[in-house]
């Protein structure tokens, strides 16, 4: 190989995951500039009037907001590790659907059951992708042992922390995200198997 034939090019390999990351980063920067106002108005979900149009935007917008840089990094690092592999396996449209389904599920449940608490962050999406990843080796008629271990460890930890640990972490959001990822992983893999 000659020196002139060796060229490196950037690859936009995972448009949904990279786009999601950029939106989250932009939301974080805008929130820093506005002194927390954009998170309150756009990027967190809480009980507000159903006649207010931003209420419906916040059902999805809350997954883009983060309380700070460390909160953002904690979620985005895992999404960037797991997400591109899943997007390659399931396709961009399916991963976008998983993210939106997770946002709506966690946003609406939080709106109904936790009226006085603001929810923001992509941790529900992280858990959806983790449980979805555990279905990667799914075969018809078999439940992957990795799925059972991941479900037991991640969901079990969230149930334990929700009951015994007092923190600002929304364990219910993690659990719901996990169920969305597991449910959609099961459906997508079953559909894939039925095509063959």
Q: How is this structure best described in words?
A:
It is a single chain. The chain is an all-alpha fold. The chain has a single domain, classed as Rhomboid-like fold, CATH 1.20.1540. The protein contains 8 helices and no strands. It has helices at residues 15-33, 37-41, 53-61, 69-90, 92-113, 123-133, 145-164, 171-194. Helix 5 packs antiparallel against helix 8 and helix 6 packs antiparallel against helix 7 (145-164). It is globular. The mean pLDDT is 86.
Fill in the keyword field for this structure.
196 residues, Rhomboid-like fold, 8 helices, 0% strand, globular
Query: What's the tally of helices?
Result: 8
Main beta-sheet strand count, sense and barrel state? none
The count of domains is 1
Into which percent range does the helicity of residues fall? 55-70%
The arrangement of helices and strands along the chain is HHHHHHHH
Give the number of DSSP strands. 0
Average per-residue pLDDT, rounded, comes to 86
- Unreliable segments of 5+ consecutive residues: none
Structural class: mainly alpha
CATH architectural group: Up-down Bundle
Q: What is the CA-based Rg, rounded?
A: 18 Å
Overall 3D form: globular
Distance between the termini: 41 Å
CATH class: Mainly Alpha
